[in-house]
Each structure stands twice: as C-alpha cells, then as structure tokens.
Amino acid sequence: xxxxxxxxxxxxxxxxxxxxxxxxxxxxxxxxxxxxxxxRWKLLRQVLKQKHLNSCLRHISVRRFESFNLFSVAEAEKxxxxxxxxxxxxxxxxFHPEYSISLRHNSGSLNIEDVLTSFDNTGxxxxxxxxxxxxxxxxxxxxxxxxxxxCELGGGMTCLAGLMVAISADVKEVLLTDGNEKAIRNVRDxxxxxxxAGVFKTRRISSCVLRWDNExxxxxxxxxxxxxxxADCLFLDQFRASLVDAIKRLLQPRGKAMVFxxxxxxxxxxxxxxxxxxxxxxxxxxxxxxxxxxxxSKLIKEKQGIYEENLHYPLLLxxxxxx
Length: 323
Known about the structure:
Layout: H1 12-19, H2 34-61, E1 71-75, E2 87-93, E3 100-105, H3 112-117, H4 129-140, E4 149-152, H5 160-168, E5 173-178, H6 181-197, E6 205-209, H7 215-219, E7 225-231, H8 237-250, E8 251-261, H9 267-277, E9 280-285, H10 290-302, H11 309-312, E10 315-321
Parallel strand pairs: 4-5, 4-7, 5-6, 7-8
Antiparallel strand pairs: 1-2, 2-3, 8-10, 9-10
C-alpha cells in the first residue's frame, strides 16, 4: 500500500514521555492538584491522538493511484435489513463479467481508537491495487484451485481475492482472514449476503480473525491449506517474519503461497530473504500477465506523478517448501 495508518509515528506513551514536562511550562509543585494534573494529561492525550489521526488521514489522502481498472463498480440493490452502516456495491470483473459479487465498503468516519489500537487498519479504508490484481489473477487462473483448500491472509474489509476464488473455482474450501476484528465482521456479512444470492461455487466458505503473530490463531489451522495467498502485506517490519512463519505453518508440505506486492523500497526483498531463510523456494515474476504488464507500461508514460512503480506495481511471488 502507498500509505499505512501504522506509519503515523511513535507510540502515544513514547510521545507523552517526551513532551509531558512542557505542558505547564514549569515543574509540577505542591499547588498542582491531582484533578488538575489528570486534566492536563487528558488534554495531552487528546492532542497526541489528534496528531496520530491527522497523520493517518494525511497518509491516506495521498493515495494517488487507485486501480488497474480490472473491476467495474456499481451501486448494489438497496435492502432494508437493518445491517450495520456501509455502502453496498457490486464488483464485476471487466474481463470475466460473468463473475460479480456484492461488497460492503466502510462509509463511516475513521474511529480514532480503532486507528490507534486495532491490528493493522489499512485494509479498512479501501481495496488496494495489489488486492485487485490478485483477485483478477485468481479469476483468470481459477483452474489451479480445483479441489484445494485455500486461505487468504490479510484480506482487509472485503477479502476480494478469496471471494473471487469462491465464486469461480471448483474449490474444496475457502477461508478468508484478517487480523482486524472489524474487517472480519464486515467479511462475514459479505459472505452471508452472497450466499443468499447463491453466487458461490463452494458451500465451504468462512472467515475468521487470524493474526500472524498469534500462536493460537495459527496453530489451530496448521498444515491445513494447499494454497495461501495475500496481497500487499509485506510492509510492516514488526510482522514480516510472523507472516513468513504463518504461511509456512498453514501450508501443507506440498502447498504453495501466492503473494502479490510492490517493491515498497526494500520491503519485498526483505520478505524474500526471510522466506528463503525459513526454507522456502521463492520465484519472482514481474511479467505474469500481458494485460497488467501493458497497462503498467502505459501508466508509467501517462501518469507520472500519480503512478509510481515502486509503490503500485505488484510483483508475483510463488513460495514453495523446499525439500
């Protein structure tokens, strides 16, 4: 992703410890009552939280390039069901228009507590280009999923790619996951709505919260999947090694992972190095699809200042267990 909420800055406690003495302009003395001191720290907390939020919104607002135009989006039929807030839209594949699915976008305002305390909120904002490309790739190569158990990691508010597998492939099972509880609540509603519409080829589609660094989350699914896939999940330094470990443990011995991600500086290379150290064989593919490659070349020429290869063009990584 071009921007991430988690890049907003140092932790609130770290900032507080550095800026606390400057609040009153003098060292606290006996005249400072406990209520007054508490009020000052409450005010500081609000200021720091607003700094975090402003930074988050600033990062999000510079998302200049949004899509490879692989799906058309139209407003979905409105239903008076009392569902949670959000806008339902119909995503239809441009190149495979027989495949279409209802998604709910988060239309509410960003909750500052969610931004500061939840596990990676970036997928709560929108569908990112790498996820869009992964979804397109899954539709085009739906035959590779036949009779297999598939898991999408870090799918955000929609898990679009995993949904495309579930509507197009004769798949054994699809599990849609993210580390954020809010995202998974939305995904569950998406599954329910589309099950009611009868669009899935498989009956075995489900979702759950799965944090890569949570031993319980990973261990209960260990060795279960033939294919694990994710899109643009390599950027967070503190979770990159956990992602490699989770992929390795979730896969069956002969399974493989499909990872779409842009370079984002050195983050992709760092992920590949960790994967190889963990015993994976890693194949990199830059020209994995003629249409995507041609559109990428066109964007470089025509969208300078908007489209940046380092941030926006996803490479395809195929990970297989060595030996």
